[in-house]
Specification:
single chain; 463 residues; alpha+beta; four-stranded mixed sheet; 28% helix
Length: 463
């Protein structure tokens, strides 16, 4: 009050104005100092980024997909991975997780795999409510120290706790095109998703005398579930029965065999599942039950065996979710087998010989044949050389496929969800796709090696 009385009104106005300017200047300098301090901290902190890509789909092509993934990580430097395969290594695992530097992608990359079948893979890309389970990206899922040169850091062992979580997939491998699935109307990327040719073979179990399966014989067998052995051998005295064994309808392998043989992709089948035996023998078969193998006598409830993609969860129409499970059974003898209906009560066969027929990838067939399973010709043309080489098709067998004499094959598609086909996710996609031809192994043949093409799954093969 004393100061105000000592100054004239005009002097008070000037003093007040100068005071406001000083306060504004002080606040500006304070804000600038804080901002500079924060910027300094940001520049001092190490840069960190992580790309996580979830991959699902075809079990038939997983060995090639995993080999390509490992090649890109190995080119980027050391990496870690873990998986659920107790034997056979990561290339046969149903779930796997990789972490490290992926060639061509800045920062750390995590690739998670959960193989569930081709059709189910496409479904995972287009249906936001259907999310496969992947290993959680946590340190507990890895050995703490990365292995030198990208070596394997962990196999499945008793007590190794691997937590999982449901997650929407970015990439899916498929033995068939989306046009052969209920998701034909969906748009996926890229425009040309072919990454290889996956080759199949007819296969029978150890001890079988079947050497050839035609499309007509296949249709007769899978529509009824069983047929007399004489239908395949032409020998009247062969009165024992042959049973159909196959995949559920989430499988691209199943879609391929129903398309290639002219059976019809959406037509229900009658398939049987192995429910009893030892490591070397099969003693019990049961018709696949709705909802899975079926609980109760002579069966264990297993929802992964149900066929639900086309809305046909009925007795006989179910099957195995993975070809690796079938290959283990096909390497067994079946000299004295009891066969039950889907309810596990009525006996369809009370002891005696049984032959099993399935359609399977050549990579799984090669593994099964090493333990006794039998390659069959398809429509009179047979692949043999892979059994001798153990890793790739012989030149002669490859020529049968590439030139069109052998038609049990389809294009392997690598689809991406549209919303994730960009940025680092696309770099991972492109990297894996580019690495597949050099890492395809027994999974198939590079598309560039084919002298023939086909317009659709099961379509006409021609130059």
């Amino acid at each position: 009050m004393v100061l105000a009385q000592a100054l004239s009104p005009s002097a008070v106005v000037v003093a007040t104005h100068k005071l406001k300017q000083y306060i504004a200047y002080y606040n500006k300098m304070k804000t600038t100092s804080i901002a500079c301090g924060l910027l300094g901290l940001a520049l001092a902190a190490p840069a960190y980024s992580q790309t996580v890509v979830d991959i699902t789909g075809a079990t038939a092509f997983r060995s090639a997909a995993i080999a390509a993934i490992r090649a890109k990580f190995a080119a980027g430097g050391n990496y870690q991975y873990a998986h659920d395969a107790a034997s056979g290594g990561v290339s046969g695992a149903n779930k796997a997780i990789f972490k490290g530097t992926f060639q061509g992608v800045n920062g750390e990359t995590v690739v998670r795999c959960s193989w569930n079948g081709s059709v189910e893979g496409i479904r995972a890309l287009v249906d936001t409510t259907y999310n496969p389970e992947y290993y959680q990206n946590v340190n507990g899922n890895f050995v703490t120290a990365p292995a030198a040169n990208g070596g394997e850091t962990h196999k499945d062992t008793v007590g190794f706790a691997k937590s999982v979580e449901a997650s929407q997939s970015e990439i899916a491998f498929s033995d068939v095109t989306k046009n052969s699935t209920p998701f034909a109307a969906s748009t996926l990327s890229p425009a040309s998703p072919q990454v290889g040719v996956v080759v199949f073979t007819m296969l029978t179990n150890e001890g079988s005398t079947i050497t050839n399966v035609t499309s007509k014989q296949f249709r007769a067998l899978f529509s009824n579930g069983s047929q007399p052995l004489s239908l395949f051998t032409g020998v009247t005295a062969d009165e024992s029965l042959v049973y159909a064994v196959g995949r559920n309808d989430g499988s691209g392998t199943r879609t391929a065999y129903l398309a290639e043989t002219g059976y019809g992709i959406t037509n229900p089948v009658n398939q049987f599942m192995i429910t009893g035996g030892t490591t070397d023998t099969i003693t019990t078969l049961r018709k696949a039950a709705a909802g899975g193998v079926g609980s109760g006598a002579n069966g264990v409830n297993d929802s992964t065996s149900a066929s639900t993609v086309w809305g046909q969860d009925i007795d006989g129409n179910g099957g195995y979710f993975s070809g690796s499970v079938i290959r283990g059974h096909m390497a067994k003898t079946a000299a004295n087998v009891t066969v039950y209906d889907a309810n596990g009560t009525d006996v369809l066969q009370d002891g005696g010989k049984a032959d099993l027929v399935t359609w399977i990838t050549i990579s799984d067939a090669a593994t099964a044949r090493a333990s006794g399973a039998v390659f069959c010709a398809f429509n009179g043309v047979k692949l043999d050389g892979i059994a001798a080489s153990g890793t790739t098709l012989s030149a002669a067998d490859k020529a049968k496929v590439t030139n069109g004499a052998y038609t049990a094959w389809g294009y392997q598609q690598m689809y991406a969800r549209n919303s994730s086909y960009s940025g680092n996710n696309r770099l991972v996609y492109d990297g894996i796709k580019a690495a597949i031809p050099a890492n395809i192994g027994t999974a198939g043949i590079p598309v560039a090696d084919m002298a023939v093409i086909r317009p659709s799954d099961g379509g006409v093969v021609a130059p």
